[in-house]
Amino acid sequence: MSHRRIDFSAAVSLVVANMVGTGVFTGLGFQLLSHSQAFTIMALWFIGGIMALLGAVCYAELATRLPQDGGEYHFLSKVYHPALGFMAGFVSATVGFSAPIALAAASLGMYAHGVYDSLNPVWVGTAVILGIAAIHATNLSAGVKFQKVFTLLKVLLIAVFVFAGIMNGNTQNVSFAFGDASAAEIMTAGFAINLVYVSYAYSGWNASAYLAGEIQQPEKNLNRSIIWGTLLVMLLYVLLNAVFIASAPMPEMMVDTQGAQAFQPKDVGIVSARYIFGTWGGKVMGGVICLLLVSTISAMIIAGPRVIQPMVGKIPALRILSATTEKGNPVAAILFQTLLALVILWTASFESIMQYIGFTLTLFTTLTVAGVIVYRIKHGKPEGYRALGYPLSPLLFIAANVGVCYFQFSEKTTESLIGLGTALIGVLLYFISTDRDNNKTTA
């Protein structure tokens, strides 16, 4: 049994920090390419939040019934088969954490460059990844305290920004009312594709499930941390995007489609802050967002190795990556994840990573939520926490995500196939492992 050093507040901070990051400060720029109605944008963020909440109540049941580190790797191994669990774990290690760390670092570098033109975005992102990884690799307790402080700071600063935006008023005279134009936008494939960006922004609601083996009183704190963290972030996201739209002209926040910066993320936070606080205030806000993204990177560097460490321990060639310190800190896995994140940061484009992440993670979270139904069929109702709204909650989540996957595969086939290819590599690694028989009995 792992050392249980993560209390309820730390678990909530991990959920919030994993969720509030790159997506909410970059997603709007992409959404505005196909949507011009404020109601449509608000609907995207509200529906995305409901989907996350439906997934959260389902994950909370599985995490409470199966309270061990590993997340989808552990859940799918127990519910379905160790091969599927290993596939999910491999995806989490390569896509679920390393790629989002790279995205968050790229966004942080972009915002830092917006504040000081002389800063190189990639080098800034690299330095932040290395610095935070060093903190967590040397001392988990210090890392948890670091996480709590930065997450609290993140929530407070977003709340201040939202309050200032509300006091500033609807300076763009944008209508948030439902109308024929917004109804037409909602009924397009573009709306489903944009749900991928929104779903990515909400990803992380299951973060505390990855550290279930280290959370104090998991039978009580796991489900509470997942649900309350998701509700808080949903509220922040809807308010934050309403402020963005009401404070700044939509064309200025839209992603560029021409030139050297084509389809690169737009620093919508800085654009909006300039209209609320002025030019100087915009630069301050850029620095603030950098601090917020530090918290996001930190949370993923904590959670990711808790998937990698138990998984690679069953592959002889990779067993060195499962090494831990005397206090159970997975240092080797942290270093491995850091290396992957840096490679992705330096080699891949922002949009391709976003789509690659979105399709693959949606696929496995859908399988995990379906696992709530499967596990009940196999073992009956849980004695403790039960998913709110069951069976409607998992069925709605599954239906919505299957639709999103279908539209994304149709529109972004290459990125989706790369994601599936990553998952297949995980299956191959499982079946070439000499510990395969051991996997069947111990996963």
What's the topology here?
Blueprint: H1 8-19, H2 22-31, H3 38-65, H4 72-79, H5 82-115, H6 121-138, H7 140-168, H8 180-186, H9 189-202, H10 218-247, H11 250-253, H12 268-277, H13 279-303, H14 305-312, H15 331-347, H16 350-379, H17 392-411, H18 413-432, H19 436-442
Helix pairs in contact: 1-7, 1-10, 1-13, 2-9, 3-8, 3-9, 3-10, 3-16, 3-17, 4-5, 4-16, 5-6, 5-13, 5-14, 5-15, 5-16, 5-18, 6-7, 6-13, 6-15, 7-10, 7-13, 9-16, 9-17, 10-12, 12-13, 14-15, 16-17, 16-18, 17-18
Provide keyphrases for this structure:
443 residues; mainly alpha; disordered C terminus
Output the CATH topology.
Amino acid/polyamine transporter I
What count of domains describes the coordinates? 1
Question: Main β-sheet: number of strands, strand sense, barrel status?
Answer: none
**CATH uppermost class:** Mainly Alpha
SSE-based structural type: mainly alpha
Distance between the termini: 15 Å
Order of helices and strands: HHHHHHHHHHHHHHHHHHH
Overall pLDDT, averaged? Answer: 81
Number of helices: 19
Structure report:
With 443 residues, the chain is mainly alpha-helical. It has a single domain (13-442), classed as Up-down Bundle (Amino acid/polyamine transporter I). The chain has 19 helices and no strands. It has helices at residues 8-19, 22-31, 38-65, 72-79, 82-115, 121-138, 140-168, 180-186, 189-202, 218-247, 250-253, 268-277, 279-303, 305-312, 331-347, 350-379, 392-411, 413-432, 436-442. Helix 2 (22-31) packs antiparallel against helix 9 and helix 4 (72-79) packs parallel to helix 16. The longest helix has 34 residues, at 82-115. The protein starts with 7 loop residues before the first helix and ends with a helix.
